[in-house]
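Long-time lurker. I teach an intro course on protein structure, and each term I like to show students one example going from raw sequence to a predicted 3D structure in token notation. This year I'd like something fresh instead of my usual example. Would anyone be willing to generate the tokens for the chain below so I can use it in lecture? Attribution to the forum is fine with me.
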Amino acid sequence: MPGVKTNEREGTRAVLKYSRTSPSKVRVVLNLIRGQHVQRAAEILKFSERDAAQIVGKLLDSAVANAQNNDQIDPEELYVSACFADEGPTLKRFRPRARGRAGKIRKRTSHVTVIVSRMPDAELRRFRAKQSADQAAQRARRVAGGRGTPSTTGAAAPETERNRRFGRGRRGSASVTEAPTDATEASADEPIIEETVAPDIATTGIETRPVDSTDDDAVIDTDEEKS
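-- Reply from a regular --
Happy to contribute to a lecture. Here you go:
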């Protein structure tokens, strides 16, 4: 015994006739939303890049509104039970071609139908359980992200100290270190005087004796006597 025909399925439907779109182009979009929840189907159509998605999206909204207002069905319990596109009349046009010929142009039309129905009880319970689990997981990720945010006084301070110590910025670029502003620092106009410290005799073990000018004279005299 043959099953129920597609156009005879139970549910609330919305029909668009004589749409100036090829049926083959509309069927590609309809295959994406067939069997999906109406909320999921609306999201798929919203982000689809095909022009036929706008037509099917308006038709889906109309079918959901018919089910809500005429059949008093909650939109949260609806899914796309069936959708199909039939071929409508074809408009024939001609374009002049070379050597007196005429090129045939076929402008296709289509009749689009979207049927929405209430989900079975088992499928509805499964869908609601999955939806609540997704919401709980999203809430847990949001709370964990809020708690894991580093504070400006805790984790950022060691990083800033480390960057200042090694002379680089946050992204590895060289950072400009500020000159110390000490009151005892010498001015740029004053000459810099370096102080030398004499070595300690006790540590070096070498005896030093100051050189006197008389020693130079004595060395010169001894050289003259030898000559």
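Some talking points for your students: The first helix runs from residue 23 to 33. The chain has a mean pLDDT of 78.
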